[in-house]
Amino acid sequence: QVQLVESGGGLVQAGGSLRLSCAASGRTFSAYAMGWFRQAPGKEREFVAAINYSGYSTYYEDSVKGRFTISRDNAKNTVYLQMDTLKPDDTAVYYCAADRNLYWAASAVAGQYDYWGQGTQVTVSS
Predict the structure, then answer these.
(1) Which helix (H) or strand (E) holds 36?
(2) Residue 76: how many CA atoms within 13 Å on its side-chain side?
(3) Tell me, what's the pLDDT at 83?
(4) How far apart are CA 1 and CA 71, in angstroms?
(5) How many Å apart are CA 105 and CA 48, to the nearest integer?
């Protein structure tokens, strides 16, 4: 079983930045693809970004390309989401997720992920 704990959310003005972290338990973190998703009030959970096990392949939802950067530090069992030039539309609860299939490609599909964190709130004021 893998436990994921997100941190780094908060309130920020439009145009500002936040860095989210997701710390994972377990010995096989370096073999998992990881993803970030978000859910705004009244909306479906949506894909934000994903990274493969090595960190060499990354994927982004179109609206965050050029503004968000996903990265990972396998030595620290942590995945990050650097969010720059934030917009009010980025306001949501952000979740990290892990795919327990070892060494699989990262996916934008929520159903591919097996473990989820509890989420961290990001609020962007205009």
Answers:
(1) strand 33-39
(2) 9
(3) 98
(4) 22
(5) 16
Give SS3 for 90: helix
Both tokens of residue 76? 């620290």
Decide if 29 contacts 77 (C-beta within 8 A).
yes
Q: Which pair of tokens denotes residue 45?
A: 């959970």
What is the rounded distance in angstroms from the CA atom of residue 64 to the CA atom of residue 49?
A: 8
**pLDDT tens profile 39-52:** 999 999 999 999 99
Give residues with Cβ within 8 angstroms of 68, minimum separation 6.
48, 49, 60, 81, 82, 83, 84
> Tell me, what's the pLDDT at 5?
97
pLDDT in tens, 58-101: 999 999 999 999 999 999 999 999 999 999 999 999 999 999 98
**Long-range contacts, stretch 50-53, CB < 8 angstroms, 24+ apart:** 50/106, 50/107, 50/108, 51/79, 51/106, 52/105, 52/106, 53/102, 53/103, 53/104
Report, as an integer, the average pLDDT of 98-119.
Answer: 93
